[in-house]
């Protein structure tokens, strides 16, 4: 029976040396191969959570599609169009008031981050 007496672990930037002299630096294609393998392992473990997110989003996406098609049909009739816009206006305003600060904060962080990285 043979026993492995040397370390076969591979870290980023270093590769296994079959002569048993420890680690030697790896370059170029091997580094990209190690990073590609790490990305594949991360995606393997993240896949169930991505699937769960899709599963949870499907009902909302379906309802949004139905509402979009219904709104397009309603907007073709001029008499009903004014009433629909009057009913929808408060909800549109509420959406802007709710999402506006989040978008503004995101823009502020984006611009601040770019300014910090330039210096």
Pattern of helices and strands: EEHH
Task: Figure out the total of helices.
Answer: 2
Q: Count the beta strands.
A: 2
Return Rg in Å.
Answer: 28 Å
Strand content: 5-15%
What is the topology, as strand order, of the major beta sheet?
A: 1-2
Shape: elongated
User: Number of domains in the coordinates?
Assistant: 2
Share in helix? over 70%
| Terminal CA distance | 60 Å
* Quaternary assembly: single chain
Low-pLDDT sequence parts:
none
Mean pLDDT comes to 83
Largest sheet composition? 2 strands, antiparallel
Strand pairing plus helix content: what structural class? mainly alpha
Q: Would you write up a description of this structure?
A:
The protein is mainly alpha-helical and about 120 residues long. The chain folds into 2 domains: about 1-75, no CATH class; about 80-119. It is built from 2 helices and 2 strands. It has helices at about 30-75, 80-119, and strands at about 15, 25. Strands 1-2 form a two-stranded antiparallel ribbon. β1 (about 15) and β2 (about 25) form a beta hairpin. It is elongated.
Features:
119 residues, mainly alpha, 2 domains, two-stranded antiparallel sheet, 73% helix, elongated
């Amino acid at each position: 029976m043979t026993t492995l007496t040397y370390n076969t672990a591979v870290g980023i930037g270093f590769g296994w040396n079959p002569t048993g002299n420890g680690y030697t630096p790896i370059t170029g294609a091997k580094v990209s191969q190690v990073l590609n393998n790490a990305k594949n392992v991360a995606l393997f473990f993240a896949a169930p959570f991505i699937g769960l997110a899709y599963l949870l989003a499907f009902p909302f996406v379906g309802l949004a599609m139905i509402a979009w098609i219904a709104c397009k049909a309603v907007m073709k009739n001029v008499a009903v169009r004014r009433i629909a816009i009057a009913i929808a206006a408060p909800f549109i305003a509420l959406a802007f008031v709710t999402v506006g600060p989040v978008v503004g904060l995101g823009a502020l962080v984006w611009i601040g981050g770019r300014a910090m990285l330039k210096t």
